[in-house]
Design a protein that fits this description.
single chain; about 120 residues; mainly alpha; 2 domains; 3 helices; elongated
Length: about 120
């Protein structure tokens, strides 16, 4: 296993050296790579300078964003509590409606029985 890793590492080094040699051999590629590296360096320097110059504004923006997110989370929590309370109330109301409906159905059955039995006043 170690021999395989060693051989793989050697291959990677050889390939890397060949690639670097080819790049360095071609002047056009070499100048293009140098230009890109200079551009990356300048961009990094500009970014660092911007952060240094605007550090307070950046931190203030982060604080504001954190406060806003905290407020939104608090509002969502309150909304979830209200929804939970409403769902609980609906469950209780539904149970009461079912109970009242069963009672009304029982009364209707009793009324029907009393009408069939010949009783003229079913509410006695």
């Amino acid at each position: 296993m170690d021999k395989k890793k060693s051989n793989s590492l050697k291959l990677v080094w050889i390939f890397g050296l060949l690639l670097v040699s080819v790049i360095l051999a071609k002047r056009e590629w070499r100048t293009r790579i140098l230009a890109e590296l200079k551009q990356a360096k300048e961009t990094t320097e500009n970014t660092i300078e911007f952060i240094r110059d605007n550090r307070e504004q950046v931190f203030e923006q982060v604080r504001t964003t954190v406060t806003d997110v905290s407020t939104v989370v608090r509002d969502i929590t309150n909304d979830v509590k209200k929804i939970s309370e409403t769902a609980s109330h609906l469950k209780e109301s539904s149970e009461e409606i079912v109970k009242a409906t069963k009672e009304a159905a029982d009364e209707m059955k009793n009324l029907k029985k009393s009408l069939h039995s010949g009783d003229t006043n079913p509410f006695r």
